[in-house]
Amino acid sequence: MKIGTLIKRIRKSKSLTQQQVANAMMITRPYLAKIENNHHQISSEKLTYILDYCNVNYDEFLFMKNDFKVSEKTGTYSEIIDMYVKNDFESVNKLKEHSQYKFEETQDIYYRHLVILCECIAMKFDIEKIPEFYRQELTEYLMSVNEWTYYELVLFNNFLYLFPPNTTMLLADNLIDRALKYKELKSDYEIIGMLLFNLINISFKIKNYKKIDIFLNVAKKLYSEQNRFFEQTMIKYYTGLRMILDKKEEGIELSRQALEVFKLLDHHDLYTFYEGRLHQLLKEME
């Protein structure tokens, strides 16, 4: 759907006249009419203003512009995860071929990263099989971006366990900057939470206690609201593990309280995984 056509549709759905919107935007009604009829382009500043005036957020606008479907890029990541879970490697290979073609055609780095992801899935993320130049390419890209967007967060999460621990911790600095700078942007919370707790888990494995404390403190700042129940349970669990490292016995009880929550909510996979991690840590501390 063209932008002007969509603006007209949104305006009418909100029962607003052209004059009302034009007055709010401080433009003439004929000028707005040309925008709505796709005879005149609208600046990003004016588009932002009109969406705000009509109480429509940008994600909704993009969804409507794409004929009420998620974008190809957004949908593809969901599809490839589903392929991975189902061991549908034939579809993964077809997606890789399509992505390679799109990259050669457009030079859009997204498709190059998708090719790498398909290759890694085909190799079942076996570190020994995955070529070193893939890691290098991904590292160079992530290091080259001064201010991460949602895309870099997803990319980092997809390949998190591919990087050597030192590289992971270095890249995590960008994650922390993003998390704190955009902490009011609630749409990032799910992916940032996944990354933070995975990074805490890695930090425990490599015994980097300083990083554990940093990631936990960031998580506590982000997920202080009562409705962030899952994240708060994870914070309680990892806080308990951190206390165990300091030989504080109450840490065992705190972690077990978090595990009981997973059991009560029938999250058996989570309970089994994190109960095993607690047992392993207690064994290491003997």
Automatic annotation (TrEMBL):
An example Gene Ontology molecular-function term: DNA binding
* Classification via CDD domains: HTH_XRE
Recorded protein name is HTH cro/C1-type domain-containing protein
Describe the location of the HTH cro/C1-type domain by residue ranges. 7-61
Species of origin reads Candidatus Kurthia intestinigallinarum
Q: What InterPro entries has UniProt attached to this entry?
A: Cro/C1-type_HTH (IPR001387), HTH-type_regulator_Rgg (IPR053163), Lambda_DNA-bd_dom_sf (IPR010982), Transcription_activator_Rgg_C (IPR010057)
Q: Which PROSITE patterns match?
A: HTH_CROC1 (PS50943)
Cited PANTHER family: TRANSCRIPTIONAL REGULATOR, TRANSCRIPTIONAL REGULATOR-RELATED
